[in-house]
Structures are given as structure tokens and as C-alpha cells.
Amino acid sequence: MAAKALHFDVGDYVVYPKHGVGRVIELQKQEIAGMQLELYVLRFEKEKMTLRVPTNKAESVGMRKLSSDKTMREAMETLKGKPKVKRTMWSRRAQEYEAKINSGDLVSIAEVVRDLFRAEDQPEQSYSERQIFEGACSRLARELAAMEQIDEPAAQEKILEILRAAAAIYNKDKVPA
């Protein structure tokens, strides 16, 4: 194996696609099945979970540094857009939403948040819609919080403000004249 394309240092925030934002707390060397492995030890505070990722597998599992400011701006702009509601079966849409969330792609996660957001004056969400919305919103908020060095609730409120403002624009079209 050639030079490692990705390198993370202890203390770096990283994004692991299936779990969101974590922090590298240690670099370890372990012998597993007779092979010496170098591992990143990641800590996900929200889930109270520790994950060990072989350094040579970090790229193939999709582990990455926090998004660039440009990508975060693009995700925030996505939140301001008009929600896209597909008329397919919920189970199919739920699979698509989960795939977008687990991709780790910030703009895709923002699309899920935008599409599943419901303002106070809109119809209730089903339990599963709410679960997926909250998961996506939390994932987006954790990365925003890590980038802006604020806490997750403050980041979540920032996201909800953008969504409420967008909903006010797009929902006034639906009010009968």
C-alpha cells in the first residue's frame, strides 16, 4: 500500500458516514490476527460510542475531515430551497432518505432536512418521518456546531430558523386567495 491519502491527528473532528461527527481521540497500534494494524480511535459523544478504524481503511469507509466552508454554505442554501415532495410510497422514500443520510454528504443530508421539515401550520408528520427528520437534522447540526465551535442545540436552532423562513415563503403560495 502506497502513502496514505488521508491523515487525521489526535483532536481532529472527522465525519464517519454512518455515525456523523466524531473526534480522533487516539492513534493505536494493535496486533489482530497476526497483523500489525494502525487504528484511529474515534469518539462519538452523542452516542457515547468509541469506534476503531484501521488507518488504511479510513478512505474506503468514507471517513473525512469536516466539510469546507463552501460545502457548508451550499448545504445552508439547500435548506432555503423549495421542498421536493415525491409521490412514491413512504417505504421507498424512507430508504432514499436513509441512504442520503448515511452517505455522509452534507448537501444530501440538507436535502433530507429540507424535504421533511414541517412548519407549525403544516400537517403532522408520521412517527417515522419525524425520526428520519430528527436524525438528519442532528447530523447536520453536529457538523455545523463543530465547524462554528458552538453547541449542537445552537446549531440546530440556526438550521430551524432557516427552515422556518423558507417555509413562510413557500407556504404562502398555498393560502387560498
UniProtKB/TrEMBL annotation:
Checking InterPro entries in the record gives: CarD-like/TRCF_RID, CarD-like/TRCF_RID_sf, CarD-like_C, CarD-like_regulator, CarD_C
Q: Which GO terms describe its biological process?
A: rRNA transcription
Matching Gene3D superfamilies: 2.40.10.170, CarD-like, C-terminal domain
Q: Where is the CarD-like/TRCF RNAP-interacting domain?
A: 7-117
**A matching Pfam family:** CarD_C
This protein's source sits in the domain of life called Bacteria
The name on file for this protein is RNA polymerase-binding transcription factor CarD
The organism is Sphingomonas mucosissima
GN (gene name): carD
